[in-house]
Amino acid sequence: MSVPLYQAKAEMFRTLGHPVRIRVLELLQAGPRPVRDLLSEIDVEPSNLSQQLAVLRRTGVVVSFRDGSLVMYALSTPDVADLLAAGRRILSAVLTDRDGLLAELRAHSPSE
Amino acid sequence: MSVPLYQAKAEMFRTLGHPVRIRVLELLQAGPRPVRDLLSEIDVEPSNLSQQLAVLRRTGVVVSFRDGSLVMYALSTPDVADLLAAGRRILSAVLTDRDGLLAELRAHSPSE
DNA sequence: CCGGGACTTGAAGAATTCTGCAATTCGCCA
DNA sequence: TGGCGAATTGCAGAATTCTTCAAGTCCCGG
Fold first, then answer.
1. What is the Cα–Cα distance from A46 to A35, expressed in whole angstroms?
2. Are A12 and B97 within 8 A, CB to CB?
3. Measured between alpha carbons, how far is residue B39 from residues B9, B31, B33, B52 in Å?
4. What CA–CA distance (Å, rounded) separates B22 from B53?
5. What is the four-CA torsion angle of B25, B30, B32, B36, rounded to 10 degrees?
6. CA distance B79 to B73
7. Type and span of the H or E element at A83
8. Is there a contact between B111 and A104 (Cβ–Cβ < 8 Å)?
9. Which of A23, A57, A72, A104 has the smallest count of CB within 10 Å of its CB?
10. B-chain residues near A20 (CB < 8 A)
């Protein structure tokens, strides 16, 4: 497998590695939305949101088009939902493990 | 949904956003491996690999344990494979779209 | 044609992340 | 016990990414 491919995969994941961008993608799962709506649901400055949207566009995870005076954004492929779902599962698995370990640590004596 | 949760999700994805770390995870899909093996398959300095492994450990995506004089690494949950698979699907969807667009651009006259 | 809302772009400084070198730890075995 | 291979840690400088502010574009209504 070529090195540039790993680069591309990494870039794909790095694109999701930001709270605002994650939130945007989750909102877009419900369908296309204008920037104006995203802005009202995410606590961030307009220019910052635009920057984050640009990152998502650059990678090709979302697409945008104009509808009258509004700019709409949409997921470029429904596969994005799978990615988010897989992320949630891992997060929950990891947190469960952590809690499990914590519980175990508390249940036994230090010398055990 | 709380803001810290988005932070946690973002951190999870950011963890995967590095070529070496992606490669490590793909290798670990086949089962636990010692650092020594990873090192022989990935072109990176030992200290760099260690740093990247530390990042993966911190997030809880992988776990490590000692086996004699070797340190072994393993995926903490098989769900990681799903994430990588979803990433691949999106990448291929995005690239296909791009190629599709390119082909379309080439097939029509500039003024069309 | 002008005003104003809806977004985007450019750019700079702050904050993070990456990389590689040197030094260190840990366990094994002669 | 001393030497070694295996890995990790501590850092410093380089490279990226984030955030914000100021300025600019586009489009609709008047």
1. 9
2. no
3. 29, 16, 10, 12
4. 11
5. -70
6. 16
7. helix A79-107
8. no
9. A104
10. 6
Give the gap in angstroms from C-alpha A100 to the nearest C-alpha of chain B: 13
Query: What does the pLDDT look like over A51-92, one tens digit per residue?
Result: 999 999 999 999 999 999 999 999 999 999 999 999 999 999
DSSP B82: H
Number of helices followed by number of strands (H, E) in chain A: 5, 3
User: Which helix (H) or strand (E) segment is B66 a member of?
Assistant: strand B62-67
Closest CA to A88 of B32, B107, B58, B13: B13
Span A3-76 CATH architecture = Orthogonal Bundle (1.10)
Single-letter amino acid, residue B102 = L
Portion of chain A with pLDDT greater than 90, in percent: 79
pLDDT tens, residue by residue, B42-55: 999 999 999 999 99
Distances from the Cα of B75 to the Cα of A30, A45, B78, B103, angstroms: 32, 38, 7, 40
B98 vs A22, A60, A85: nearest CB: A60
pLDDT tens digit string along B53-96? 999 999 999 999 999 999 999 999 999 999 999 999 999 999 88
Q: Are A26 and B23 in contact (CB under 8 A)?
A: no
Provide the token pair at A76. 């470029």
